[in-house]
Amino acid sequence: MKTMETTLEVEELDWPTYPEIIDSSMHLKSGREAKVCKHRDFAIKISKKDLDKSFYSTYEISSMQNEYEVATFLYENEIAIPKPWGLFNINFRISPETIIKVPSFIMEYISGTRVDELSRVEVKYNKLEEKANKEIERIRKLGVKLNDFGTVNRTWSLKRKKVYFIDFTGWIIN
User: How far apart are CA 16 and CA 39, in angstroms?
Assistant: First the structure.
């Protein structure tokens, strides 16, 4: 399992700068605790913190670690979620002389529309909800306690004809 000790150098992977990722059109979603941004084929979940923060609390890191472990467990059990790539401390250059390490959960980017933003005319909405409810039952049978699994935390991929769960904050494997 990849852990927070892994460090990816911005220059090696051609990551955008931290302000670009947070403030640009790559920004996908902002929740209570994190921002999610797209870069290439990745969705990058970054703790919401000030740019000048040089460290993150044990709670922030363990919360992200838990989310990654839940996502990995679900993916290995063929639940409809993006492939989790791992947890990384990404070095972001915030000025020519300053680099900060930002705990990040990186997963596959799924092109789609959040279920709460779908028009009930665009897709067979009831069929989507039926499929999602079946998936929720499968997750519960695996012993996972779900926290927030509403339509805002699901994406409909027209290309793949599938609903994906995309946020696992607070989910617990029993």
Answer: 8
